[in-house]
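Give me the 3D structure for DUF2231 domain-containing protein.
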Amino acid sequence: MNDAHLHLVVTHLPIVGVLIGFLVLLTGYFSKSSQVKTMALGIFIFSALAAIAAFFTGEGAEEIVENLPGVSETLIHAHEEQAEIFYTMMLILGGVSLVTMLIHYKKSAFAKYGFTVVLLLSISSIVMSKFVGTSGGEIVHAEIRSDANNLIQLDSHNNDDDD
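Predicted structure for DUF2231 domain-containing protein (163 residues):
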């Protein structure tokens, strides 16, 4: 397994994890179950740890893919910028989740505010995860780029010239 493969494996964990954590947290709110809400906090903490792994495997992945045909330095740079924002958001979400878990176990009245902050942070993290995931996929997968139709038409033109 090379650095690019490792990066691909771990990058999906925080993206999917934050969505699952959000759904579990909503379930906890609707069912009024503090155990379910606490489970969501654990998922967010795990997702934040996975975001650390994803962030620190990015440089090695870049070194492998930057010289591949069709890979744009502009796309890599855009992904790096979005990854830094997502990474920061996930660290904040994980930290607030950890603090909320601790004050919840101490039976503090402030825990309900912590859960609300975690819910709001998770929503913004989900939005950012969409952008960072898409920008990462666009680096190698031309078919998902916004200019994919133009690329298909260019390729079709090039194939017509071969006849």
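The chain has five helices and no strands. Let me know if you want a second pass.
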